[in-house]
Fold this protein.
Amino acid sequence: MNGFNFFSPTEFVFGKGRENECGEFVKKYGGSKVLIHYGGQSAVKSGLLDRVKASLDKSGIYWCELGGVKPNPRDTLVYQGIELCRSEKVDLILAVGGGSVIDSAKAIAMGVPYEGDFWDFYSGKRPEKALPVATVLTIAAAGSEGSGDSVITKEDGMLKRGAGGDCLRPRFSIMDPELTQTLPAYQTACGATDIMAHVFERYFTNTPEVEITDRLCEAVLLTMVKETPRVIADPNNYEARANIMWAGTVAHTNIVGVGRDQDWNSHGIEHELSALYDCAHGAGLAVIMPAWMEFVYKHNIMRFCQMATRVFGCNMDFENPENTALAGIRAFRTFLRGIGMPINFAELGAKEEDIPVLVEKFGLGYGLTWGFVRLSSADIAEIYRIAARAEI
């Protein structure tokens, strides 16, 4: 196991109706002037935004608001948020929504105290300070409620890039599983796929003797395999929703990734799909991650056999372990299809003829790859081709 530092300062406030305590927690963490940052109309129509505002009012917290965050959040709204926070002298940003809203809030939080262009942080610069961020989570997916990561799309060129730093970890995150019960099945499935991808990016490692984090990864994956079909069948299943919501947080605080080398190539490869086609991140991962697995599994067949047997219950073929490894990848793709996810370019709305453009944009933003297997531009093109033509 590699040496590591693990820092997770977020207070997680979990359970039914906990959004009504927003004001108390803002005051606890020193907030007095809050930007409420949110997405479209769902938070308004559901009454969630009104409940949050009422809680802030009750605690005597001044607030202003900025809505309009889109999936694959844009830099243009971030710039608006930075100016609004500066003019209103905001001292805490409260993100009410899912990963896109939280990512946008973190970008604003970095930009307010920074004298340069916040995009510098999405071009390799590490943030040293940011406004405090807190969240009211409405979808289990990105894990942004507990992580120090953020992903933003630059509209000029549609470049989708990430930034990260411990200063971006939320001070508190309110997590009410009931808030996810009105999500369409497709969004729920996209979120579940993202959660599983966050685990797999850590699970496929070249670090030996990491049994504890292997088993933690497998626990989250097994939970998702069990609970996702249950919640797709019954959207109001609170217990399944609760397990999935906490799984999403565990998957991306990095508790399942410490002490081991990680990959993250599938996320980078997918980012170009969702930037170019504006598809849901989880849907793009459903297409890319099994394709990546097919391309790299020979690098460590026994690790893929471990996934196949421990997570998907495949029988071990000791005479030909490759059969087991491939069975596990098929089982993953079959699971994704079963919860309503796309498995190839056509189902996603992507075009095979765009692969050269995708590879070029990947090279501009990420350059050389890292992780489980180091990939060349030709390798990335082949992964896209596998994804384009995938079948079960």
About this structure: The radius of gyration is 20 Å. The mean pLDDT is 95. The longest helix spans residues 211-233.
